[in-house]
Write a structure and sequence with these properties.
Elements (H helix, E strand, L loop, with lengths): L13 H7 L2 H4 L3 H17 L5 H20 L11 H13 L12 H37 L3 E6 L2 E7 H26 L1 E2 L15 H7 L4 E2 L3 H6 L2 H27 L7 E2 L18 H24 L14 H24 L1 E2 L1 H10 L4 H10 L4 H18 L8 H5 L9 H4 L2 H7 L10
Parallel strand pairs: 3-4
Antiparallel strand pairs: 1-2, 5-6
Helix pairs in contact: 3-4, 3-6, 3-8, 4-5, 6-7, 6-12, 7-10, 10-11, 10-12, 11-12, 14-15
The chain binds arginine.
EC number: 4.3.2.1
Catalytic activity: 2-(N(omega)-L-arginino)succinate = fumarate + L-arginine
Main location: cytoplasm
Length: about 450
């Protein structure tokens, strides 16, 4: 069933019809499509293009279709070209010829553009809401587990931080992600309805009216751009990709930390899985899947970027390929943020193992060097002295703070009793990451 065909003599091939149809995936847009049509019809009436009576009939038909789709009476299937044809043909079936007036002053090009903007804006807001929940979990779980732990560079133990501080790094990352989404919404918040196919229409359409009805900030400035702009989709998927990159880094750390080699955390049973053969296993599948799905979202971004790169103005059918990557990326990022929230809020932190790892890692070596500097030694020399102490400790299987003053004085007579206070881990934290004074050790 088609909305066109007047100028065609021969039947379309079945192969081409299937190839061309987007209904199987753009059916997701039914709500936005009907919402856009409702605003359009009200505007047509207000601009005296259709009568009050015609408007009421069409609105009644559209609302009925929406209701039937939502209660399952009307299934979105069949040989329709796309969701726009589906709604319009069903409207005509329902209310008769007056339904044929719906598409006055409109093209599917501005129609699909408005549908996608409404849909992607809604998804972006949902992503923002989920990010907010994750941000709260990171704060809460960090505050509840404010234990000293090793901080790493090159995955080698480096200096002390706290578990809370570590989670707050992710807090900062996801907060930036939230800003990126807000900014994308701000840029995309323009109404393409009224652009027509590419060059406007001969009707005096009230674009301000549909703009305010649909909750956009303003109408688009340029019709050619309005129907062929997909920047907002690219921008959102690119923000989603950055979120996934952050989620993936966090996943990687959680996977490492829950291994027997680290044992810093234990995943909650609700977010771990077992092995079908090895009874002892508790696998961090949730985090691994998030890490894995990151590749998929990057793929969606590359797909749409590549699709858009050679398209001349204005609309071309290539743009139908914007939908699946966007739907996939949005659904994936939303479920990954939710699952990460679950993982974070149910994990248990092993305070003792964090501390053991701190002790074994010479995490106060930098502070010990600073101590000698404060006593007058040049930093390079202090670095060397502490390096020698570390070798000595490794041989004796001891920590710097466990050496006697007598032992320490063998390396430098600048050492005094106050060294122990100076290289105490809690003091290092208070002096170093400062903002995090106090920890529940
Ligand atoms: N299914 C199409 C898409 O998603 C709708 C727009 C069709 N426009 C057209 N001129 N054929 O892009």
């Amino acid at each position: 069933m088609k909305l066109w065909g007047g100028r065609f003599k021969d039947e379309e091939s079945k192969l081409m019809e299937d190839f061309n149809s987007s209904l199987s995936f753009d059916k997701k847009l039914y709500y936005e499509d009907i919402k856009g049509s409702i605003a359009h019809v009200k505007m047509l009436c207000k601009s005296n293009i259709i009568s009050e009576n015609e408007k009421d009939k069409i609105l009644m038909g559209l609302e009925k279709i929406l209701e039937e789709i939502e209660n399952g009476d009307l299934k979105i299937e069949g040989d329709y070209e796309d969701i726009h044809s589906f709604v319009e043909i069903n409207l005509i079936k329902k209310i008769g010829d007056v339904g044929k007036k719906l598409h006055t002053g409109r093209s599917r090009n501005d129609q699909v553009a408005v549908d996608m903007r409404l849909f992607s804006k809604d998804k972006a807001i949902k992503v923002k809401d989920e990010l907010n929940k994750l941000l709260n979990f990171l704060i809460k779980v960090g505050d509840e587990n404010n234990y000293i732990m090793p901080g790493y560079t090159h995955l080698q133990r480096a200096q002390v931080v706290t578990f809370r501080y570590h989670l707050r790094a992710y807090y900062s990352m996801f907060k930036r992600d939230k800003k990126r989404i807000e900014n994308a919404i701000d840029i995309m918040n323009e109404n393409p309805l009224g652009c027509g196919a590419l060059a406007g229409t001969t009707y005096d359409l009230d674009r301000e009216f549909t703009t305010s009805k649909l909750g956009f900030e303003k109408p688009v400035d340029n019709f050619l751009d309005g129907v062929s702009d997909r920047d907002y989709i690219i921008e959102l998927i690119s923000s989603f990709s950055i979120i996934m990159m952050h989620l993936s880094r966090l996943s990687e750390e959680l996977i490492l930390w829950s291994s027997s080699e680290f044992k810093f955390i234990e995943m909650g049973d609700a977010y771990a899985t077992g092995s079908s053969i090895m009874p002892q296993k508790k696998n961090p599948d949730g985090a691994e899947l998030i890490r894995g799905k990151t590749g998929r979202v990057y793929g969606d971004l590359m797909g749409i970027l590549t699709t858009m790169k050679g398209i001349p103005l204005a609309y071309n059918k290539d743009m139908q390929e914007d939908k699946e990557p966007f739907f996939d990326a949005a659904d994936t990022v939303l479920s990954c943020i939710k699952v990460m929230g679950g993982i974070i809020s149910t994990l248990k932190v092993n305070k003792d193992n964090l501390m053991k790892s701190v002790k074994r890692g010479f995490l106060n070596a930098t502070e010990a060097a600073d101590y000698l500097v404060n006593k007058g030694m040049a930093f390079r020399d202090a670095h060397k002295v502490i390096g020698e102490i570390v070798i000595y400790c490794e041989e004796k299987q001891s920590a710097i703070e466990d050496l006697s003053l007598e032992d320490l004085k063998k390396f430098s007579d600048l050492f005094n009793d106050d060294i122990y206070e100076f290289i105490d881990y809690k003091n290092s934290i208070n002096k170093g990451i400062k903002s995090e004074i106090g920890y529940n050790n």
